[in-house]
């Protein structure tokens, strides 16, 4: 019996996956290095071939329909198989691997960037370290490996605690000279603070100021940890930071009896072990953080 003919190709499926992950024609066109018109035409052709509607559209962009999600699951499997085939090309002429790691701000800029830069010398890898303003998702293929504040969710995902870490309360020398030494844990509530812009907190794990009091007075709020470090260094108020980050900012730990415990999570696709290059990055991140565990957290 003759096999049925399917008028589909990988390029069409690739456009489906990228649009589902990026959400807009413009963003998908940038990733695919093409035009919005081409992306829209590819999706229309795919919908005509399938005889179903694959996307719905609203003010926020394009979202997969139920039929679209069904097709996307098969397309992701095609993507995985193509990546595996690429990984098996072990000849000297094989192209360099391209690996993207998505990270949250603190550990990405303040620790991993330096560690990875030295390790990557001599590796056959074109590397991208992407600091994302939100939780990265392996299931959306935003990155090959993600380092996040919260435990990752989703199917076909492998995840581990990368490292626990401790945060403390810090002040500048100038702030302490002006306001005097802090007398105790209750005393911190009467001082000015530096913290996050409340409606821009992308993870509840960053909401540690609320654990002290919902009524703190803020002299400065920022959307990034770096902006808060500079504001605290300038003496605007007290700040809460991971203990591994403050060495370059000449900040002083105050009220050391107050500490906040958090975790960084690392995740990747469940077929991680089938990609040697990706696996080497995964192992390096875990081993490096384990070696530096005393830098990250205080052991009881």
Brief synopsis:
Residues 8-65 form the HTH lysR-type domain. This protein is of the alpha/beta class.
Write the layout of secondary structure elements.
Elements: H1 10-22, H2 25-32, H3 36-50, E1 55-58, E2 61-64, H4 66-87, E3 97-103, H5 105-119, E4 125-131, E5 145-148, E6 157-172, H6 173-179, E7 192-196, H7 209-212, E8 217-222, H8 225-233, E9 239-242, E10 251-254, E11 260-269, H9 276-291, H10 293-296
Parallel strand pairs: 3-4, 3-5, 7-8
Antiparallel strand pairs: 1-2, 5-11, 6-9, 6-10, 6-11
Helix pairs in contact: 1-2, 1-3, 1-4, 2-3
Describe this structure in words.
GO terms for molecular function: DNA binding; DNA-binding transcription factor activity. Residues 8-65 form the HTH lysR-type domain. Belongs to the LysR transcriptional regulatory family. InterPro entries: LTTR, LysR_HTH_N, LysR_subst-bd, WH-like_DNA-bd_sf, WH_DNA-bd_sf. Pfam families: HTH_1, LysR_substrate. The chain is an alpha/beta fold. It has three domains: 10-87, Winged helix-like DNA-binding domain superfamily/Winged helix DNA-binding domain (Arc Repressor Mutant, subunit A), CATH 1.10.10.10; 97-163 and 263-296, Periplasmic binding protein-like II (D-Maltodextrin-Binding Protein, domain 2, 3-Layer(aba) Sandwich); 165-262, Periplasmic binding protein-like II (D-Maltodextrin-Binding Protein, domain 2). Helix content is 38%, strand content 24%. The chain has ten helices and eleven strands. Strands 3, 4, 5, 6, 9, 10 and 11 form a seven-stranded mixed β-sheet that branches. A two-stranded antiparallel ribbon has the order 1-2. Helix 1 (10-22) packs across helix 2, helix 1 (10-22) crosses helix 3 and helix 2 packs across helix 3 (36-50). The model is unreliable at 1-5 (pLDDT under 50).
